[in-house]
Amino acid sequence: KRLYQSVYEYDLPLFNPAPCVFQFVSPEESDLANPWKESFRQLYRGIHVRPGYQDLTFKGRNLVYFNTIQAALDYADERSGSNSTTGSVSSGHSEGANQGALIFLHAGTYRGEFLVIDDSDIALIGAAPGNVAESVILERESESTVMFVEGAKNAYCGHLTLKFSPDVTSTVPHHKHYCLEVGENCSPTIDHCIIRSTSVVGAAVCVSGAGANPVIRHCDISDCENVGLYVTDFAQGTYEDNEISRNALAGIWVKNNANPIMRRNHIHHGRDVGIFTFDSGMGYFEANDIHNNRIAGFEVKAGANPTVVQCEIHHGQTGGIYVHENGLGQFIDNKIHSNNFAGVWITSNSNPTIRRNEIYNGHQGGVYIFGEGRGLIEHNNIYGNALAGIQIRTNSDPIVRHNKIHHGQHGGIYVHEKGQGLIEENEVYANTLAGVWITTGSSPVLRRNRIHSGKQVGVYFYDNGHGKLEDNDIFNHLYSGVQIRTGSNPVIRGNKIWGGQNGGVLVYNGGLGLLEQNEIFDNAMAGVWIKTDSNPTLKRNKIFDGRDGGICIFNGGKGILEENDIFRNAQAGVLISTQSHPILRRNRIFDGLAAGVEITNNATATLESNQIFNNRFGGLCLASGVQPIVRGNKIFNNQDAVEKAVANGQCLYKISSYTSFPMHDFYRCQTCNTTDRNAICVNCIKTCHAGHDVEFIRHD
Fold first, then answer.
1. Residue 89: what pLDDT?
2. How many CB atoms sit inside 10 A of residue 468's CB?
3. Which of 145, 343, 546, 585 is the most exposed, fewest CB within 10 Å of its CB?
């Protein structure tokens, strides 16, 4: 151990089991009887650069020392050219014979050495106690600190600090120079190095050119005044377990058809984006941790097409992933969370694939698609975001399918400003505002979604929101299942709308819409409300089992109701009130627990060829002064329970309890000073108010 540490200075035995592989193994974990001795043997062929030691000879040992790296490289060149010297230095061990030169750089700062490595299998490795790389520093102020060029196939550089510190005042242009440069047709291994550049242009590490295919692992590329790692011009390479942080520009740039593989890197606290792929850059990015960058965690631009899997992209000071200007990319199985802006932004004709990600706890929305963005958004779990789970606006047209969008502090899906989109088979639930909002000229297509359990409306069309809502299940909302207002004109077809704490569908404030072949049932208030100058068309719907009325039309509501089946509702099948004037044709209104059709409060209606039958109260109940247009209706087999009760002397309260006033003659009592708001039925007038001063108000 003492001998080993006097020669190599390491705290632990270092083994070289294969080309480009150097591993420290603590003696306790080693299977060898004497790991120090075995390590000494494996490293014995090495040449040492140790300033001030070149006059030293170890008794009986053939160890070579140089003052400069260049001298050691020259010696290695000579030695490999002459078999006789190779034989003597490697002392006959087979490991040494088939491996390239091994050069140990001992502690110190090496300035001004110009290292261009073109030798197939030379290895440069730091040698010092403690943290080796921190003690062995190569530094330059112009040209690149270390360059690997064609020929350096199995070269190795490890456990060193590489610094590039150009003089800021110098006029020598250095934008083409880097701390570490890997050129075409070479594949060195860079391992456990600390890489620092103070150049305000360029990058700390540049890998460029066809056939550039390095392995860079366990390196620390941090605190640089420019880009950390720059891969370009068809270069590839494997980049694993590196620390890339606090750089002034992007942590990583990938451009111009470069296609690296990057795994398990930690990219954080950059003063720009984490990873930037652009100009047709590609790459495979797996299990990287990308966080706390000042701009997006991952940016894709200008035809770039990266694959990003199982990464965690979080706590960005703006967004998580930003795809723009015809960007592509596959983002699969990532965790994207806690970003200040949207988790994913897609804009300007970009068309990425976003699959099976968790997108959550964003300080704004989950996925934000705008400015003619596209994209396939599928099988993601999007939840707990401060704004909409998915927002589609300004002529964007994505495909959104099989996502879960839930527990948002805002709405689920928000489509506005002429947004489009094909939105299919998602589950949208438990959001604070509407499950889906569609507004301002937007016209998405929503099919086969489950939209439920929201704290407000299920699907909300307003301010000229259009589109198609087909074959969805919309249920269990605190407000209406569907609301349509202010010029919106959607097609709503084949949906099941049920279990709402309010109405099923509410059309108001000038709303339109075609509602066709829907099932609307078990809502706490009317199945469909039409009010305030709205004019929808309802055809062939089934509106049933409501806990209130079937369809309520009031405050100037209109509407064309054709061929609907309205049955088994707790209140009137159709209630028409306050200046409304709908048209009802060929509907069947039956088996209601109250009246079939009631018209009151100066409303009117056109009723043609409807069948009104088997309702508990009357079939068609008209208040005083109401004169609808009536043609060819069949009104039969209604139970007329109100008339029967009156005829039998019963109080109507027995019929309706306190939930409603059925249509009947009602009175007021001057003696008891009641107003016409107190509907006193004729039997109470006869019994309770006998001998009082009473007057008939109206039939209503």
1. 32
2. 17
3. 585
What is the pLDDT at residue 55?
Answer: 60
Around Cβ 27, how many Cβ atoms within 10 Å? 13
Q: Dihedral (C-alpha) 372, 373, 374, 377: value to the nearest 10 degrees?
A: -140
pLDDT for 92 equals 32
**C-alpha–C-alpha distance, residues 143 and 177, integer Å:** 5
Kindly report the pTM of this predicted structure: 0.93
pLDDT single digits (tens) 23-46: 999 999 999 999 999 999 999 999
What's the structural domain count of the chain? 2
Q: Is 8 in contact with 127 (CB distance < 8 Å)?
A: yes
Q: Is the pLDDT confidence value at 83 over 90?
A: no
| Joined tokens for residue 588 | 């069947």
Assess contact for 392 and 413: CB atoms under 8 A.
Answer: yes
Q: What would the two tokens of residue 52 be?
A: 């001030």
- SS3 string, 485-530, reads ECCCCCEEECCEEECCCCCCEEEECCCCCEEECCEEECCCCCCEEE
Name the phi and psi angles at 565, rounded to 5.
Answer: -105, 120
Determine, yes or no, domain membership for 334. Answer: no
Distances from the Cα of 551 to the Cα of 26, 140, 544, 556, 584, angstroms: 81, 83, 10, 14, 11
Q: What is the pLDDT of residues 269-293, one digit of tens each?
A: 999 999 999 999 999 999 999 999 9
Q: What's the mean per-residue pLDDT of the chain?
A: 93
Residue 337 lies in a domain: no
**238/262 Cα distance (integer angstroms):** 6
Q: Which has the closest alpha carbon to 634: 661, 662, 613, 664?
A: 613
Taking the C-alpha atoms of residue 216 and residue 596, their distance in angstroms, rounded to an integer, is 79
DSSP per-residue codes, 555-586: SS---EEES-EEES-SS-SEEE-TT---EEES
Task: Look up residue 174 and give its two tokens.
Answer: 């250095």
Q: Is the pLDDT of residue 458 over 80?
A: yes
- Model pLDDT, residue 676: 72
**24 inside domain:** yes
Instruction: State the SS3 of 328-365.
Output: CCEEECCEEECCCCCCEEEECCCCCEEECCEEECCCCC
Q: Which two tokens stand for residue 562?
A: 């054709």
Rg (CA), the chain: 40
Domain boundary among 144, 178, 199: 199
Distance of CA 24 to the CA centre of its chain: 42
pLDDT at position 97: 38
Has residue 64 been placed in a domain? yes
Q: Quick one: average pLDDT of 373-396?
A: 98
How much is the pLDDT for 94? 36
> Of the candidates 182, 199, 216, which is a domain's last residue?
199
Name the residue with tokens 């589950």: 427
d(CA 50, CA 68): 8
Q: Whole domain around residue 662: which residue ranges?
A: 641-699
Sign of the alpha-carbon torsion through 6, 9, 10, 16: negative
Phi/psi region, residue 329 (left: phi>0; alpha: psi -120 to 50; beta: rest), is left
